[in-house]
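Raw record, unedited: MerR family transcriptional regulator
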Amino acid sequence: MTIKDVEERTGLSRSNIRFYEKETLIEPSRNESNGYRDYSENDVENIKKIAYLRTLGISVEDIRNIISEKVTLQEMLEKQKEVLKNQITDLNKAKLMCEKMLDEESISYEKLQVEQYVTDFHDYWKDNRTVFKLDSVSFLYIWGSMLTWTMITALCLIIGALSYSKLPTEIPVQWSKGVATFLVNKNWIFICPVICIIIRYLLKPFIYAKLQMNNYYGEIITEYLTNYMCFIVLSVEIFSILFTFGVVKSVVVLLFVDTAIFIGLLVVGLVKMDLRGKEVL
C-alpha cells in the first residue's frame, strides 16, 4: 500500500511515518515496477505501536531497543511507569501548594511569605533541584532564541553592507597557510545572511528530527545548534573581510575557539539538564 493509504489507516501524518522510517523503526519494501515504498500490513501495525508508545512518553531510542529486543516491552513500561509516577508526584505537590496559597483571602507577590508554605528550605530546594538545573543553563534558552538568530543574521547583513564598498572586486573564500586559494566576486559577502536563513528554515527541521527522541529538550538543543552554525557563518564572514585587508591570516584558530566555547557550554547544559536520563535523587 502507498503512504497515503497508511495515513488513512493509521490517522498519522506523512511526516510522522517518514520520521519513523528515517529512524529505521520501520523498513517498508520497494515496489520493483516504480520504485515507490510499498507498505505492508505489518508496517501499518508497527507504525500504530510506535506512535502509541510515543504517546506514553517512551523515547524513539527506547522503542528502537524494544524492537531490536535489547529490552522487553514489559521492562520499558515498568521503567516509564516509575518516571511518570515521579512526575505525577511532583505535579501533585505543586498543585497542592497552589491550592494552599489560593485558600488565602488575598494573595499577592508583595504579601507572599514563603515561610508560610516551606518549613525547611534546604530540603525543599533539594526536592526541586530539577527546576534549578534548568535555571542554571538559561544561557541555552538565550542562545537558542529567535532574537539571537535575528541578531546574528542582521549582523551578517550589516557587516557585509558596511564593508562592501571598501572590498576589492574579488575576495577570498578559501585559504591555505595564510594564502588565498579561491576568489569569488565580492557580492558573495551577502550570501552569509542567506546561509543563516537556509540553516534556520531548511536545516533546522532536519536537526530537530534527529533529536526528536526527547521533544522538549530536542527543541532547545536544535535552536542552540542552529544559532551556533549561524555564528560560524558570521565568524567566517568577518574572517574573510579581515583576511582581505591583511589583518589576520588563519581561520583555524578562530573556528577552534568558537567550537571549543560553544561545545563546552552545550556539554555543561546537557549534563545539568540530565539529558542522559539519570534519575534525579
